[in-house]
Amino acid sequence: MPINQKIYKYPHxxxxxxxxxxxxxxxxxxxLANLRKGNESFSxxxxxxxxRKKLSDFFGIISKETGDKLERxxxxxxxxxRKLTEERHKRLMKEFT
Length: 97
Hints:
By secondary structure, the protein is mainly α.
């Protein structure tokens, strides 16, 4: 009795990104898992969380009053920094001239 045998050939092509295994704590895993939306992958979550944000994404998160206070504090810090830098520069110039 002859054996009826057929051979099928299908090329298998796999195109994908390289993957890396990382170790994370149980707490970190749980935090990532809590951020999942639907069937979103952990890679997608990490890319989203660590991605760059546009400045416009932050528009409106603080009140105008708080923004003005923050702006004044930044300007005060810059003035103090400039003053200290000038003093250090003068001191060094005296020391080395």
